[in-house]
Amino acid sequence: MNITIEGLHFSYGQNPVLEEIDLSIQKGEIFAIVGPNGSGKTTLLKNISGVLTPDRGAVYLNMRQIADLSTWEIARQLAMVEQDREVGFDFTVREVIAIGRIPHQSRFARENKVDKERIEEAMRVCSVDSLANRLIAEISGGERQRVFLAMALAQEPKVLLLDEPTTHLDINYQAQIMEIVRTQAIDGLTVVMALHDLNLVAQYADRAAMLDKGQLLEIGKPDEVLTEANIKRVFHTDVIVTKHPLINSFYVMPLAHRFDGGKSRSSERELL
Amino acid sequence: MGRTEKNFQRQLSWNAKKTHSIRWIFILLMILLAATLVIGVVVGPVPIPIREVFSYLLGRKPAVGGSGRIQHLIISQIRLPRVLLGLLVGCELAISGGTMQGLFRNPLASPYILGMASGASTGASLVILLNLHGVAFLPLGAFIGGSLAVGIVYQLARQRDRKTSVYTLILAGVAVGALFSAITSFLIFLSAGTDRMMDVIFWTMGGLGRASWTYLCVLAPIVAVGSLLLMAFSRDLNALAMGEEGAFHLGINPEKSKRIMLGVATFLTSSAVGFAGTIGFVGLIIPHIMRLIMGPDHRFLLPATAIAGAIFLVWADMVARTVVQPAELPVGIITAFLGAPFFLYLLKTRKVRM
Q1: Is pLDDT above 80 for B3?
Q2: Which A residues, 87 through 116, put their C-beta within 8 Å of a C-beta on chain B?
Q3: CATH number (domain holding residue B244)
Q4: Residue B107's closest chain A neighbor by CA?
Q5: Nearest residue on chain B to A102, judged by CA atoms?
């Protein structure tokens, strides 16, 4: 499913958060949104998901404006894993994933054969089958994130939105999550995610967009977006971007202690 | 390693048993419900043989001359209405409590959380103190008072974007509840020394003593429709457990679901309060206990809670009307005495589910 964003503006009260966003994301693409804290990544995701309604402009899923779709219709095509989701009550892992089937069930329906298959497949894809009967509150952060991913996949979405899916996760879990996402994208799932970790963007994203104070600074392939100049401009940090000698990707390395709010300590920066 | 492994195994087997046992829990609850209906009629100051209860329930005429006629009269005019009222009130308190806990994602929520009980008490006190007689006035007063309190709370908690925050709702509930309690206390103070003061106080403690077939005819359809509606929204509660945004992404309109469920639960609770006074603990403890036993999936939890609440209140009432014969204890005291220790026991022994 393609996503098109046209002239999107959004503000919380008087504060403009997103301005003049134009984006088009293709089916099967892994699209990363990068930018510093407060640059509007989450707000952009929430505008795409329909949780927030843009002040101006529109978001289209396959040419249909999302504002015209019912909550129900959206949920059958789009799944989202929010940041720091907390589950009320002690549901088991399997129960949580089964809740992902709600958009495909009628009000009084019990779990049918299709539901069971989808749930089990999602658990297998995300390697959480062995956790099925554990309580969601008892498992580790990395496991929980995989459970939420499985829940989203059980929803059979055509678009998957992920808000910082790898934050707080150990490095092995980060890679696990990204590998799962990559496999799904190859099968045609459109993935849009906000990501902190620029190296994950470099390795896994097909394209990326860099947000700076609510405006799109650059859209393109990761190596076009994550340049030393762009990163310096948006994050106010000096980095080295180099091709990695072993993998077919580049990586971003910050230069320690060169943080600079853009004003002070400029003499130190010149030393560099 | 060994320990986590063992925990894991235990968890696994426990949960596997759980999935299979949900059906058995329901079968057991239905058996208990039937038994409760019969035992509730048998137990009382005048003992009634089980044989007579069945003969009445099966519609047989009592034998001429024996004590059968009086016994049938006691059954039809006193015991049975009282047991049935207990079933209905227990059912609606428990299912409302389960719904409120789900809505607020908080196992400490009760059906009275939005100031309902205080508002209803104020309404009922006014009716009693104004000396309005008639079957309908007391329930009506309580109902109006309770709904008024919840209405005020909801309006207060509504923000400009027409959304309601759970925290604002709870806080507004506490404040409005306190205000109505103050009004009730003031009313009681005004009536100090009169008989009516005792009436008000007893009403506040709750009881099923006013049961009658007229009450039942009004209450039964309310409970049936309300409970079915709440059960129809049980999957919305499951979705809301993922947070409001989580629910939105599952195709649920969280604001709409919340409004409907709050409305129905309030309606059920206020009708319970109207007919039986404020009976505490049922709506708090029964959903909680059932969640400990069968897990938080509201599609099973709500119906089980409704049946368990009905059973529990009838048993509590049986205790209330037998321990200090010929006097009757307010049933609220018993629900707390029975419920609280059992609840604590479960909390201590089974930390698995909450």
Answers
A1: no
A2: 87-92, 95-96, 99-100, 102-103, 105, 107-108, 110
A3: 1.10.3470.10
A4: A89
A5: B250
